[in-house]
Design a protein that fits this description.
Layout lengths: L4 H4 L1 H20 L5 H30 L8 H11 L2 H19 L11 H65 L1 H6 L10 E6 L4 E4 L1 H7 L3 H4 L4 H5 L7 H5 L3 E9 L5 E12 L5 E10 L1 H49 L5 H26 L2 H5 L2 H16 L2 E5 L9 H22 L3 E8 L3 E8 L6 H9 L6 H12 L3 E7 L2 E9 L14 E5 L3
Parallel strand pairs: 6-7
Antiparallel strand pairs: 1-2, 1-5, 3-4, 4-5, 7-8, 8-10, 9-10, 9-11
Helix pairs in contact: 2-3, 3-4, 3-5, 4-5, 4-6, 5-6, 6-12, 6-13, 12-13, 15-16, 16-18
Amino acid sequence: MDIPAAFCDGSLLHRLKVGLLEGAVVKISRPNVQRGSRHALQYALAALAAVVALFLRKMLYPLLGSANPYDTLWLAVVFSAWYCGIWPSVLSVSIGIAGIWYWFLPPFHSFAGKGPTEVFGMLGFLAFSAVIVALGESTRRIMGERQRVEQELREVHERLEERARKRTLELEEKTEALQRKTEEALEKALLLDLANDAIFIRSASDRISYWNRGAERLYGWSKEEVLGGSTHDLLHTEFPEPLESIKSREVWEGELRHSKKDGSQIIVESRWTTLRDKEGKPTGWLEINADVTARKAAEDATRRLSARILSLQDEERRRIARELHDSLGQYLAALKMNIDLLPTRDVKRMAAQCSEIVDRCLVETRTISHLLHPPLLDEAGFGSAARWYVEGFAERSGIEVKLDLPAELGRLNRDVETALFRALQEALTNVHRHSGSSVVDVRLVIDEKQVRLKIRDNGRGIPQKTLRQLAEGSGARGVGLAGMRERMRELGGSLQIQSDQTGTLLKIAVPIYEGSPQRSADGERNSAEVPAA
């Protein structure tokens, strides 16, 4: 069997590799390169992978012969699916199949005259290749989404550091000014009352000698109630290190946990400065405290959300893997057994069975891909996708779903349609899992300014404690709600949950155009509102 010289010429292959790699280096060095060049490189790499795989198969032909002709092509398929995308992968698979059929399967140098074994072998290779390409694309998208989320988290983190730096500079400026003019500051204490931070002075015996209005607003005690008292007894301070170690320093910064007059606890960012007399003897401490409870809660919520996203990613991977194993895997195994039995059984009957198995594989593949992201959402819009999903949900769950959509519902912004569809998916999934509802009403209303989606069930409702956790973004539940909340926040919208013993109502409002968040004032039921910003 002869192979074209292009496959055997090692120098030509080397020059092709070097040329592509040099093109990749040039592409990386140009930050503003057009997207078309990147796509062209992806197609070139996919084609090169197929060519290399065929060349490798040629080298192994004396050892393997015509058996297992597609062995080396798997490397090209995996490489293309992981690094190049769907269509370059299709190109790589096509080149590989054409090369195998023309050069490695008898009759050689012809695409015709192949037997059933070669045909079904090609179909099996195509089926497995489709699975690999789908998994590769899913992984690429998940990694892209993860990188986007990580980038957003980094940006949020950078802003919080930036704010802390500015806050520290402000506190340092205040402390330096107070150190230079302590006596003047005591005489003109009214100026300190204008500060938003809590500022007070303690004597060498730890008794309060000054208490500004910021401290009154933060802690709840008036100046008259605290003067002469001990801050540690009053605020029940929890220190991160021994108190004597803190007092031994000229300047100390750290976080403290304090109790307010109403008994609630807060976290403050505290800065202590030792005050000295003209002889250098310590006379007390100046303490400036800023309430950072909300910021700490936001940081904790961000960390929890990041952990939940990673957990959801792992769960989704397990679910897809399980579905592939339990459905496509079984069908493909049956197809393999039928192919192995072809030489000893009725070819026509076995071919019919194999065709039926392939049809089932296609149905399962379409079902999985549609549940991940229905093509109807991109092609026909939210209305068609919502009808398709609701019909399937009702059939699978046995729950009656009443869908009310505007008669003339046109296309909306792509991000708005995606957010509404994901909210519908999450809401109906929660109804099926938790509510015990028999009927769900879904209604979409649209006007010139916003789109409003309402989803109501007649289930057992959400307990008060869980409802508060959902509103605060805490607790073990609310992972899906956190995702919906972030989607609506990005779009300038709002999300509200109302629930009692008669059922649960989810209300979503999203502006059609950019504008201020829309808020609901409905308060006749227990409610948890998640604002847009």
